[in-house]
Amino acid sequence: MRSLLFVPADSPKKLDKSLGAGADAVIVDLEDSISPEHKAGARASALAFLREATTVTERPKLYVRVNGIATGLTDADLDVIVGGRPDGILLPKADGGAAVMHVDAKLAAREAMAGIPDGHIKVVAMGIETASGLFLAGTFRQSSARLVGLTWGAEDLSAEIGAEANRDAEGRYTELYLLARSLCLAGAAAAQVQAIDTVYIDFRDNGGLRRDTEHGRRDGFTGKMAIHPAQVPIINEVFTPTPAAIAHAKAIVAAFAAQPGAGVVGLDGVMLDRPHLLRAQQLLARAAQPTAAD
Questions:
Q1: pLDDT at 293 exceeding the cut of 60
Q2: Where are the domain boundaries for CATH 3.20.20.60 in the chain?
Q3: Which of 24, 57, 150, 160 measures 20 to 30 Å from 178, CA to CA?
């Protein structure tokens, strides 16, 4: 998933429009964008949308951001939305693998009651958006077969820390948030799941979004969350391997294939070893994945 677009669950109009936004995944939001008094209505709206949207053949993946376990609202969310057969949930403030195991059990019980195959509903964990999450980023490995992605949240983390800002005057993350971002990358790699970068909140700043997304791709992220449909095309473009990158990756794979057993090969005057082959194979695997446009 290159782009994951947040849409408030209590807006049927925005939900319907989101299917044509070009995002690889739509995240129906029951958490931050919904006030407490509107949670019940938002759940009903989310269920109605899921029941209709899941029947569409060509559509993005459909995820639901439920309320975090500590709120006591997760069960109520799952009781309603599991019947809509979403592709997955986004679990906020997922402090370590224990939180994923907890929600895995909740999902398994509800899938069984709804007649849904076990493991159908996947999980993307927002694993680093609390202070405690920083210390638990390495505990997601083997927490659940449902876990397919790990992401982080600068806004919630800065609120908990009490920081005035999470970026400096030049728009760069300050030290704590660079650490959180790096821990997300390392945690995802350790768990062998997708690393998904956090949102860029200034949805009118296309240049800033592009720089932020390109930096994420450079460092190892393969997708990014979006808060506005206008952000989706830029995110998709940045995370789609270019023809030149694909051609170079194929050349690397071919060079190693031509010398079976070689630890190092030469290509265009550059010596390449096994890590270069692994990166080339990863890029080709991403290029072969279906997207919302397929």
A1: no
A2: 3-239
A3: 24
